[in-house]
Design goal:
The protein has one helix and nine strands. It has one helix at about 1-15; strands at about 25-30, 35-40, 45-50, 55-60, 65-75, 85, 90, 100-110, 115-130. A hairpin with a 5-residue loop joins strand 4 and strand 5.
Length: about 130
């Protein structure tokens, strides 16, 4: 009986460690001009085109202050308009006046301070780099 109780207790601890309750893996984003709630998931590979010039964008600092900065512009290769990327692509070094096609992956990472899941992009491969 003691072994059964101990096994039940160990199972409870193991399962509670795997719980994702309390993690908010949804974000509100503007997608093609519409505000939508989207779920952040891992994507192993997708291609994006990086514009030859950065755009002016507003970023929020760690203390919540809005600052103006320059951000990469990206689009899926089949899209017409560019979107600003609020952040960087890990492993990618941007050079102005070049148009890039990149193979990247998206990983969902939990921000420890807010317990919110956010996407990060990581470079898999530079598919092409064309001077403009």
């Amino acid at each position: 009986m003691k072994k059964l109780a101990l096994a039940a207790l160990m199972t409870t601890f193991a399962l509670s460690g795997c719980s994702t309750m309390g993690m908010d893996n949804e974000r509100t984003m503007v997608v093609e001009g519409q505000t939508m709630n989207v779920k952040v998931i891992n994507i192993p590979s997708f291609e994006v085109e990086i514009a030859p010039r950065k755009a002016v964008c507003g970023l929020t600092t760690a203390n919540g202050t809005k600052v103006e900065s320059e951000c990469l512009q990206y689009r899926q290769t089949y899209q017409k308009n560019y979107t600003t990327l609020n952040g960087n692509i890990q492993g990618f070094t941007y050079e102005p006046n070049y148009r890039y096609i990149l193979d990247v992956r998206q990983e969902a990472v939990t921000d420890e301070a807010s317990n919110v899941v956010k996407p990060i992009w990581i470079l898999n491969e530079v598919v092409s780099k064309t001077a403009e």
